[in-house]
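The records we work with from here on pair a chain with its fold. These numbers are not coordinates but entries in a learned vocabulary of local backbone shapes. To see the layout at work, look at the sequence and tokens printed below:
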Amino acid sequence: MVLMKVRLRTLLLAPLLCLPLLGQASLFDATPLDAQQFHLGLEGLAGQISPAEAHLDDLLRRPEANAILLSVIDDPRRSAVAKLYALCGLKRLGSGGYGAALDRLRGTDGQVPVLSGDQLLVESVGQVAERIETQQCDEGG
């Protein structure tokens, strides 16, 4: 009887003790997508991808990437740059939510800084969203 109580107690407590670990595993900070400018592909003389794109690449390896990216699109506190990175991520994933996110960003007013080669340009959010749709959305696309 005592052995059953210990086993029962272990069965009930073990999942509760693992909850903080599970919560940490599913948390992913999308804040680095809120970059100063939107840019895909290699940049600078060293030819490295931007920190925001590197963060997007890390996010895309996670099982909950689609949900995180959709939440970035829906979050009014996120910058237009973050939403464009999220749109690109949704396209890379082949997400079912990509079309609605694209339509939403096509209709967004405002402009974003875009690094193109070595030039910093300012383009409308809709133009950049359209370019994500019509061109490859991967490194250099």
